[in-house]
Write a structure and sequence with these properties.
single chain; mainly beta; seven-stranded mixed β-sheet; 11 strands
């Protein structure tokens, strides 16, 4: 099973742009996958879906960060990116990437990274 690893700056100042990356740390990128996206968990709160991208490059976003978040991928490098502009302290959270690989029409596997902590503070 593919293992994912997120990376990011850790600390970001308010109003700056946050950029995160997710790559394959071990295993191989699956030949068939349905979605690759970002989820976050703020302190004391549940998991929140940010958005995902499909193999064709189409992206969909959750309501909370829509308009501020941009998800992209580099297929040649097997990397996923999240860019979030004009960050505020409410963006502070642990950010995870998740990949859904497809084995058949009724079988799929979700792979998660271990997460990267992002803190927005001046």
């Amino acid at each position: 099973q593919v293992q994912l690893q997120e990376s990011g700056p850790g600390l970001v100042k308010p109003s700056q742009t946050l950029s995160l990356a997710c790559g394959v740390s071990s295993g191989s990128m699956p030949i068939r996958w349905a979605s690759w996206g970002w989820i976050r968990q703020a302190p004391g709160k549940g998991l929140e879906w940010i958005g995902f991208i499909n193999p064709e490059g189409g992206a969909a976003y959750g309501p909370s960060l829509k308009g501020r978040a941009a998800i992209s991928k580099d297929s040649s490098a097997n990397q996923l990116f999240l860019h979030l502009n004009s960050v505020t302290p409410e963006v502070t959270a642990k950010y995870y990437c998740k990949l859904r690989s497809v084995q058949s029409t009724i079988e799929w596997t979700d792979s998660w990274g271990q997460g990267t902590q992002v803190t927005v503070s001046s």
